[in-house]
Every structure is written in C-alpha cells, then in structure tokens.
C-alpha cells in the first residue's frame, strides 16, 4: 500500500502518512486531521479505527487466525498452559522451565486476599449476580493494595499485575461460595493455578477435594482460549480507564463491568440460556427465523463477531473440549446435540452465510462449564478470570507506549445551537 493517504476536504488537499504493522491492515495516521481540516472522522463502534499499536495479539478475521505473540491459539490450547500463556502475553516470549516455575510460584504466592475483603461479600444479597460482586470487590482491591497503585513505578505495575492475575480466581470462588451459602476456602498453594480455583470453588472444609485432572486440563484450556483478544470492548475499556492514570485495580474493575454485557463476555451465559429455551432440535427453525426477523431483537447468542468473518478458532477447540469433558465426567447433555444441530442449520442458511455469522468462543463454552458444575451466572466470571491476563498485559503495554495519552474522542454534535434562557414565567 502507498506510504501516504491523500484526500481533499472543502477544497483543501490533505495528505496523511500510512503506517504498516508486521502483518495485517495498514493504518492511516490521522492524528493531524482536525488541525489540518477542522473536521473529525466518524466511526461509532470503531469498525475502521485502530486505537493503538500492539505486539500482543493478532487476529485475521477472514482467515479465522488468532496469534498470541505470534503463536497460534490452537497450538497454545493443545500444548501450553494458562500460566505459560500468561507469561508469554506479559513478557513477549515463551518461558524456559525455570522462568515458568518462578512465575507460577510468584502468582501462587499472591492468591490469598486481605482477610477484610471477606466482609465485602456479606454486604451483597445471596442472589446477587456474581459479576456484580466481582465489579465491586475487584475495584475495592485498590483500597487494600496501596503499595502497588503508583502506575509510574515499573515494580509496582508488575506487583499489581501479579496480584490481579492471582486473586481473580480466589475472589471468583468466593463469589460462588457466597451465592450457595458455603464457607470460603483458602487457596492451597500445592495445587496448580487452575486446580486451586477448582478446589476453592467446589471443595468444602468438611472433606478433602480431589482435582479431576481431565477437568483441570479442560478448564486450563478454556482459560487459555479466553486470555486475550486484541482491542475488544472490555480491553478497550481497560486501556481508556488506564489512559487517565487510574490505578490498575480500578481499570480491571471497569473491564469486568464492560465484559458483563450480553453482546460481549455475557454471551456465554446468554448462549446457554438460549439453548435451554430452544430445548430440543425440533424448535431450532423457530429460533433461526426469529434471529433473521428484523422486527425481532432476538439474536443467536454465541454467533457472529465484529472481527471473525470465518469460524472463531477458539470455538473449534471449545467444541472438541466438550466431548473430552463429557467422557471424563461420564456425563452427557442433550443441549450439546441441540447446539451442534443449531450450528449445522445456521451455517446452511443464506442469512448467516451472507452475513458471515459463525459460532464464536461463547457458543460451546457454556455446555462445558455447565457439565463441570458451574451455574450459568458464573460463566462470565470465568471469562473475566482468564481475560484479566490480557487486560493486565494490554494495560502494561498502554502505560509504556510513548504514543499513548488520555483517550478523549470527539463527536458529531446534532443538538440545538445556542439559544437564550427564558425564565419559567415566559415559557
Ligand atoms: C465476544 O471483540 C471481541 O473480540 C469479543 C470477544 C473477545 O474475546 O473479547 O471475541 C468475545 O464478545 C464474542 C461475541 C459474543 N457475543 C455474542 O455472541 C452476541 C451475539 N452476537 C452479536 O450481537 C454480534 O454478532 C456481535 C456483537 C458479536 C458483533 O456485532 P457487530 O460486529 O456490531 O455486527 P452487527 O451487530 O452490526 O451485525 C451485522 C449484521 C446485522 O444485520 P444487519 O443490520 O446488517 O441486517 O449481522 C446481524 C445483525 O443483525 N447479526 C446477527 C447476529 N450477529 C449479528 N443476527 C442474528 N444473530 C446474531 N448473533
């Protein structure tokens, strides 16, 4: 592509540099557009806007490619571990065994939370949505860890990063325990990151808890699949919050709030609820018709993506993992057959083919999480545990990017022009 973008506006010819990345679309650097033309660009939803430069994750939506620091998600999901992917995203290279050991031990030794945080849960109703609890308690971490909130200090940034990655599973397990009226379990540092989370969630003080290796492996793979995903809505929220200098705990709480939406991370909960509403394959045509009906707000949850116009590579791994978990737990869930049939019918329907709507990461995850024993309301919390690695890595990259400044978009104003105030007796 050329090294400059030229166009004229109101009779004035302007030219902007074109920048190329290591792979993927070039960008037109329009930072001087307003100064040179007195006009803004208009891009609600940022469908054609690059907000930053990043080395973390590359997505080719047309080819269904997802790379973390250059490594394909399929290879990481099959061969790596969530702790290793966390190290890779944070540091840029896969760790040697000694580096991985040190990193895992560091994370493990941050898994406990301040004892007073337990009282925060008591303020919530038992039936509070766990994501509401997570928004609250993660934001509250900044009240307990003042020694890692100075974002200008690289050491404090790393400690805050480790604390967030380590404490999310503990807080998530506490949110679940609180909802079912069971006592909190402290972390057991002899377990893996994911094994520790499973024990804190499903273990009880009355008896030992045996981590099922197949479930541990499947859960760890699900965490890998959700770790990072370029400049998605919640990651952009974390970056925007961080651009004001807000502390990392507040930024991650903002990301959790954004992820909760059903169009984003909340889709895994919505997708399983949709499959339950559909029930049997016989009712699928009724729901496909509703999804195609312009007058019906219903959408097939777990389908479609802003970037993927091909199969989401994470959904491929997720579908394979369903069978592994079913075999390991000797369970079956007829909803999986319904999901497979729904995918088959949708991918043979012109509407979905023309609009390039494929299953995304959220379509099959709920079937697995439900089989493992998580209630639907915990699904997005699990997404948040994994995505905290990506949020923290993206936040660190943003803080150290010399191009970054406070994010402050402009607008196309369509409201009333200036007018004179009239006292109420004259109106
Ligand atoms: C995640 O960004 C990320 O990377 C997110 C994520 C990550 O890892 O961070 O990948 C995680 O959020 C995955 C997406 C989960 N959300 C869902 O599954 C909810 C259902 N899907 C959608 O609502 C939708 O597909 C989005 C929000 C995911 C993408 O929306 P876009 O890119 O803004 O596309 P759009 O809403 O403009 O839809 C384009 C067309 C529209 O039809 P027209 O108005 O052009 O006629 O496709 C239709 C939409 O009506 N459409 C759907 C549909 N998704 C889009 N129609 C039926 N069912 C759907 N699921």
UniProtKB/TrEMBL annotation:
The chain crosses the membrane at residues 363-386. The keyword Heme does not apply. One of its GO terms (molecular function) is citrate synthase activity. The active site is at 305, 362. SUPFAM superfamilies: Citrate synthase. PANTHER family: CITRATE SYNTHASE (PTHR42871:SF1). Belongs to the citrate synthase family. This is Citrate synthase. The lineage of its organism: Bacteria, Pseudomonadati, Pseudomonadota, Alphaproteobacteria, Sphingomonadales.
